[in-house]
Fold this sequence. Notes:
The protein is mainly alpha-helical. Among the domains are: 46-131 and 139-152, Orthogonal Bundle (Arc Repressor Mutant, subunit A), CATH 1.10.10; 196-269, no CATH class; 290-319. It is built from eleven helices and four strands. It has helices at residues 46-49, 56-67, 76-82, 87-99, 147-152, 159-164, 196-207, 220-234, 240-248, 259-269, 310-319; strands at residues 103-109, 115-121, 290-292, 299-301. A two-stranded antiparallel sheet has the order 1-2. Residues 131-154 and 157-163 have low confidence and may be disordered.
Amino acid sequence: MGTQNPSAPPRTQSAPAANPTRTRRHGGGITHENTRHTTRFVVIGNHLVQHRELSLLAIGLSCHLQSLPTGAGADIKTLTARFPEGPTRIAAALRELEAHGYLRRERHRTTTGRIVTRTVSCNQPQAARREPTSTGGSPDRPTVLPRQHRQAQVPPASAEQQEQAPSPHPPRTGHRPHPRPRKALPAVPQPSCTAPALLQQATDLLATLRRYDPRLLLSATDTAHLAPGVAAWLERDVAPSAVRHALTADLPDDPLRRPAALLAHRLTAQLPPPPPFRAPAGLPQPRYEVRNCDGCDRGFRAPETEDRCRDCRASADEAAPGTPPRHVPSHTR
């Protein structure tokens, strides 16, 4: 009775705890049939597809964004047209990805001055955005940071790259940045005559355009630039009403950003040809004073050197010897 069997277990052994990552003993669960991809594939990390805080819509949307080529549309309107989910659910999923570091939105200014929003899809949140272990948080869980902090965290560049690449955001100073220079207006036709009265008439015509369309309110600088072009039309025998109609007819319905540029284009593109050539009129015949003829005492017009009328001079020529007779028309007073 005092000898114990050493091969007998001291107590009943319990079944080992089931590992959730392994296939269950009863044969259920998922199995994989994997085939190696050679084309048209994207690598997705398990930290995303098995994320415990992201919704299924956010995980699937992030996978779709990572599979898109560079430059493809990723805004809410484009995604709503692509998927059956509405804009509210897609916007909420984008905010989830942005909060956990899988998405970043940056605003950039193009060369034309327009501000556009670029969506940056991150396949793995950077370590700089994770919560430090000294605060008691888990090192594997990303920390939600404000948008300005997330946008400022970029990989450090070398000293040579920092010298060559211009800074996308100039340092803020106490002075406001200088405005962009205004683009010069197109050239306008120049008149051959620069009489002050002609230029003043052209200036008055431009100043009255705002009565026909309020959008054609011109500044003094724009009016001075356009006045020679209007004067070139006026000296070509174009009526002021015709010039006004050419400048104000068929204007676009959209807001006019630069009305002076539109008027300068019309003055140049629709410039009429010069008027037909007119031969200069001959010199007017001199008009002499009326005087009395010394021979017949009739009145006639002639230079002061002549003292007889035409008939009397003809009679005197016929009476002279050796002069052939000729027919002389009657004298007209």
